[in-house]
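This part of the workshop introduces the protein records we will be handling. Getting from the letters to the C-alpha cells is the skill we practise here. The record below serves as our worked example for the rest of this section.

…
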Amino acid sequence: VVQVDPLSVIARNHDIALYERVIDYRPADLDNFLYTQRKGFDWGGVVMIHAMTELPYLRALMARRIKQPRFAKFLAEHPAVIDTVYETIRERGPLSNRDFPAPKTIISIHFRSPKDTGLALYYLWMAGELMTHSRKGVERIYDLRERIAPPEFDYVASPDDADNFFMPKVFHELGIVSPRSFRNGLYGIVERKVAPSEAAERLAALLTAGKIVEIRLDADKKTPHYILSENLPHLEALIAGHIPDAWQPIETSTAQEVTFLSPLEIVSARGRAQKLFDFEYLWEVYKPLEKRRWGYYTMPILYGDQLVARFDPKLERATNTLIIKGFWLETNTIVDQPFAAALKSGLQRFMAFVGATKLELQGNIPSEIAATLQT
C-alpha cells in the first residue's frame, strides 16, 4: 500500500516507502512501472498506487464516487466544460492543467484547482474517464483511459464483484484488523456506507470460511482482532521468537542497518504505531510551528523489530546537504555500538538515495547521536 504525496521535503512519500522495501530503488523505477510498462496507476481522493489488474473493480467504485453530492453538483452545473476538456484531450492527446487557458472567471475556490478546466480534469480523472498518462515534476498529465489501460483490464466489474474483490484488501493493507477498522477500511475502499451489521456479517462469513482467524492483542485484550489465515504461520513464528522465512532480508537486516519510515507509512501512520507498537507518531506538516511536538517532516526509525526513535530531516538541494533538525529517542532505546553502527549505515544509504553529500545537525540532537553521526 503506497500513498502518493507530492510534498518533497527530502523525497516524496511514495518514493521513500518504496526505497524502504526495494533494494536499489530509484524514482525512475516507479515512473517506468506506471507510465511505460502500464502495470499500475494512481487514483483516489487520497491518492494510492494500484495494480492495473484492479482497474475493472475500481471502475465500479469510481461510478459510486462521482454520484457523491459535490461531484454530481459539478456535473450538473458545468457539463459543457467537462465535455470540452474531454474532447480537447481526445483530439490533441495527453494534456495537463496548464495546457488549458485560464477562465475569464474563477468558478470555485477549491484546493484542487482554481480553474473550471482544472476541476473538470479532476472530475474526469475521478470518474475514470481520464487516467494519469505521466507526470512532469508534480504536474499530472492526463489522457483518455482507453489509450492507457490495456484492453484486457478496460471493463467494469459488477458492484458485488467489486465489493468482494476489495474486502480482503482491508486485511492486506492493515494486517491486523479490528471490527471497527474493518468497517472503516471497507467504507474507505468501496466508496459507500457500510452499516455495522453488514460489516459484522462479512467478518463472520470470512471467519466461517476459514479465510481469517481471530487473535487478541496484549494492548487490547477485550477487543477481537483478525488476520488472514495465510498469515497465521508468520505470527506463530514471531511469537516463538523466529523470523518467518518469507521475511528474511535479501540484503542487510534492520538490525544491521536502520530503516527510516516514510511519514505516511501504513505501518506507523494514522495512530497505528501507538496501538500496535506502543510508539507515538504524529505527522505535523499542517500544524503551526508553535503547536508541533517534534518537527515538520518527522520520520520514525525502525531498528530490528522496534520503532526506536524519530527524526526531522530536510534536504537543502542547493548544497546537497541533509539537515537533521531534531532527533528523539524512545526512553528505552540504548545507544550501544550495534545501534550506532546500524544508524550510521542506514543514514549513509539514505543520503545516497536522496542525493545528499553533506550532513548538518541542528536543533535537539542527543549528544550520543551527534557523536555517532559526525564520526
Observations:
- The two ends are 36 Å apart (CA to CA).
- The CA atoms of residues 78 and 120 lie 8 Å apart.
- Residues 24-153 form one domain.
- The chain has three domains: 24-153, 159-239, 250-374.
